[in-house]
Amino acid sequence: MKFKIFVSIAFLMPLLTFSQMKFRSVGTAKPIEFTFGFQHKKGAFVWYKGQKEPITLKLKTFDVDSSERESGQPDFHFYKYTEIYRGKATGEYGITEWPRNVADIYYIRFKDGKKFTFELVQDDEFYDGKSMVLLNDVKVYYNAFYDDNLTLIYPDGGSTKHLLNHLDKNQARRIEIKDFNFDGNDDIAFETARGSIMNSSYDVFIYDPLNTRFNRLTEPDNTGCGLMENLKVDKVHKRLITRCKNGTRWSSFIYKFNQSGQLILVKKD
To answer: 120-129 pLDDT, tens per residue?
Structure first.
């Protein structure tokens, strides 16, 4: 299909997969402004200016238009998110994204069907790497580039701080949101490149729905290389696999979770 022409809106964000953007309403008597935390499919939120807390967004649909690839045009990504406020679906947000551009930002308020359109607020300030995701109503603060601190702020007002694996200069930290312990709840992990693109360490935090807390996952004593290196998730067999180099030899470690939720080594190659 032919994609309609957009006005280019470039912005200085390194990767949309962990960016935060500011938007302002178009055509309203009083400007409405919010920060949109864009984490691809999970962890997204909106935080309205003047409000104390962000609002959770749940991905509704994600579509890709690649019809113009042959003519050298990029793919266009279409996102629709459902706004979840106090446990209820209260609205819908839509955004279209392609490399270093966004457009067609809108919000539909469910109670009366009113639609609002928004434009990107251009920000000339240097991006300092500070990022946030909202997962299980927990605010997760981290830095994608310049420091190794992680802060988790919980709905009950409690908070915990952690030190992530060290990030070398000119490297980027990438966040992953998925079910790492196969219990049906989303967990978080932070991937940090180590020396080369072929070697990465991971900080993994497992969500405990009973205590509503994230707990750091570590390899059992005397196994692995200590940094959850080159972590792979085997959904089919419900296993975690790490791989690291000791001298000239590569070793693989295969883990499973026991009934108590503890990570145990089942095989070493």
So the answer is: 998 766 677 8
